[in-house]
Amino acid sequence: MDILTIIDEVKSFNGKPKTRPKANQGLKEYSGKTPGQLKKMLHSMLTARRIEREEKLLLRKGYNRFFIGCGGKELADVAFCDNLKITDPMVGYYRNKAFDMHRGVSIYQKMLEAIGDPKANATGGMMIPAHSAYPELSIIPQASPTGSHALEAAGIGDALIHPTKVSKQSHFPGGAYPDGSVVFCSIGEGSTSSPEFGRAVFYAAFDKSPAIFAIYNCGWAISVSVEEQFPEGDPTTPFEGFQRFGLKIIQMDGTDIKDSLAKSAEAVDYARSGKGPVLLNVRVTREGSHSGSDDQSFYMDPDELKWHTNNDCILKTITTLIDDGIVTSDEIIDMWETIDKEVSEKSAEAVSAFEPKKAEFILSKVGTYDFDKAQETWQRYRKAAKYDRVKRFKEYHKKGYFPVPDLPEKAGPMTMRFAINYTLFDLFQLTEDVILFGEDVADFSGHMIEEKEKQAGMKGKGGVFLVTKNLQREFGNARCFNTPLDEAGILGRASGHAYQGRRPIPEVQFLDYMSPAYQHLKDRIATTYQRSNGQWSMPMVIRTTYGGYKQGAGSFWHSEGNLGTWMNIPGLIIVTPATAWDAAGLLKTAWATDDPVLFCESVALYNRRDWDGVPIETEIPDIDELIPFGVARVYNEEARDVGIITYGPTVHMARKVAELMQEKGIGVRVVDLRTVKPMDNDAIIQTAKDCGRVVVVTEDRFHGGAAATIASVITGGDALFHLEAPVKLITAIDARVAYGVDGDEVCLPNVDKISAAVEELHTNF
Question: Of 225 and 516, which is predicted with more confidence?
Fold first, then answer.
């Protein structure tokens, strides 16, 4: 129902109210709320609806470009909000305007959000209206792809009950949310069909975390009826079996204030008790179509449309409060007129002071990476760490973890696997803010976690490739643990711990298996800094293996090097070390930066000591030596005949080619980018200028791949005029990698292919 129609009805009320209770009197029928509290709730509801009306007016005037309403959800919002603490994190969606207002968001900020002004604290004008982000109010940044935010809520729930404490060195010292907090997640019934929501409820029930999932069920997901989504039109039905494991399911009438207050209080009390999570089916109305581009009268039964209008939660709440003597119609009119005046004034103020966004401003919100800042973070943790590192590594040697008792940087040349394992041990010693989890990362699972005596006689697992070996054995299952084989769930858990203040290291076993987590990585993790206007960062290192050259043991889903897919995600850093030295130094930088990092580890390099006779084992840097992103390593810098630009295992193929070409009198420079995002554009351009002939080698395919990007860096500037030949690209063929040694040979770059390209450039141009 239009808010002005409701106000007109209020003006016509003539009913005689009951005796008025005292302003501070707790009312049993209202779950102990006082008249004063109830009036504040009504004020927040009216404010939200008035702001919604203003957004429509601004849309007609051309100041607002998109409208999505909250009408019908206001009562549920304020009922939950009033029963939660301001320190309870709220993970919501774009229908929670009344929750925002009741928690304390200002009208002016909502007007700035509506017109996309960069001064809007929540979004900086990056997001369409109704996407909140208020750290001081514990309102987690929202995003349009709903459903996946439930995984963030489940992750926060897990983080809240995690046994380790967040350090004082954290980006949220001591933890963002105190012990005993409850995480509240609101979601539309349509979004609960997403697999992410199902997994989120599962995790919350499995962990018995203090999470509340409130499904705002208006019966329609745009034009799809809830009856086409769930049995009996009830989105809680798929989860009834979880009640055996502590999940509480509640049916709540979000149009009735007394039932809403009672059921929301019941949900909060249950979740806070530690018995498990709560799932609510909250019946609400839809007072207006899905968005400004939708018209529900086109498809909704007229009788149902009438039901929605007649059961408007604001109208029903007003009627109930007047009937019970809580407030008079005159008081409501006065309240409305005050709200109406303020919204009009703040809207005009926002419009008159609108500032257009500039490219520099937008780019500044994509990521936080700064090498100096990463080093400062590293040193902050290092100075707080109180332990004898020399003694520790001697003890690790005695336990059989490492072959020598020396510090890692003094252990001599090693393979990449040992370098990463050593560095992970250093990170784990540094702070309990480090937790590592994923598929098969732990040494032991199930009841064997507690079987210490049996463990002593067993090697343990420690990852498919043994890179995380002995971490769980040494630091415990709370800090290194296995998860279900659910990539989206792994990253959702990582998000939750980052929001609480930890710096997690989730592992996805193969880059090929990242696909189920693509939405969460692309739409939530990588956008956090930009969509929250820089108020939140998402520090995590997502470790994954990639690429082929597994002596034929790879193929589909085990040999993908498709980094171009991930390079196209703003806010995501991509690291591709080719040596033990770089793996160790870059891993420390990745952990210390506040941006999400996709840390790509080539399986082919884990245990290789040489590549066709080219030695690739190296020492690793000192504990306090970090390696900056976007700075390439150059081999044979003095060479000027041909330059090869590459990364990962093909670096060592290129080094072999350089050896072979040297015998033929051809000088080959090899550039190892080390990180493909950011790239060292200066090294790329300088190589093109110095050599005039360039071969770009990647395991990625040509279409949308890294090689084409590298080539465009060369041809997009004055380096083009220094070229003496076309840039030659050696990439994987346009197919998935086939099985067997012959599959690798045919599908991927190799020494012969690179050599042929170098000779062709040198001979023919």
Answer: 516
CA distance 241 to 226: 21
- Determine the residue type at 448: M
Tens of pLDDT, residues 74-115: 999 999 999 999 999 999 999 999 999 999 999 999 999 999
For the domain made up of 3-163+173-355, the CATH class stated in words is alpha beta
The CATH code that applies to domain 371-615 is: 3.40.50.970
Summarize pLDDT for 145-177 with one digit per residue, the tens.
Answer: 878 899 999 999 999 999 999 999 999 999 999
- Collapsed DSSP state (helix, strand, coil) of residue 716: coil
CB 277 within 8 A of CB 247: yes
Domain positions in the chain: 3-163+173-355, 371-615, 633-764
Residue 556 burial (CB count, 10 A): 13
Is the pLDDT assigned to residue 289 strictly greater than 80? no
3-state secondary structure at position 163: coil
Q: Are 435 and 504 in contact (CB under 8 A)?
A: yes
For 14-47, write each residue's pLDDT tens digit.
Answer: 766 678 888 889 999 999 999 999 999 999 999 9
CATH number of the structural domain 633-764: 3.40.50.920
**What is the rounded CA–CA span in Å between residue 507 and residue 484?**
12
Phi then psi for residue 729, to 5 deg, are -110, 130
Contacts 24+ apart (CB under 8 A), 305-311: 308/72, 308/218, 309/1, 309/285, 310/1, 311/255, 311/285
* Residues designated as active site: 558
Q: Identify whether the C-beta of residue 601 lies closer than 8 Å to the C-beta of residue 577.
A: yes
Cβ–Cβ under 8 Å, residues 674 and 577: yes
Our measurement of the distance from residue 298's CA atom to the centroid of its chain's CA atoms, rounded to an integer in Å, reads: 37
* CA separation for the pair 361, 715 (Å, rounded): 28
Same fold: 371-615 with 633-764: yes
Separation in Å, CA 510 to CA 195, 469, 545, 686? 21, 17, 5, 34
Tokens 């968005």 correspond to what residue?
291
Burial class (CB in 10 A: 0-12, 13-18, 19+), 564: buried
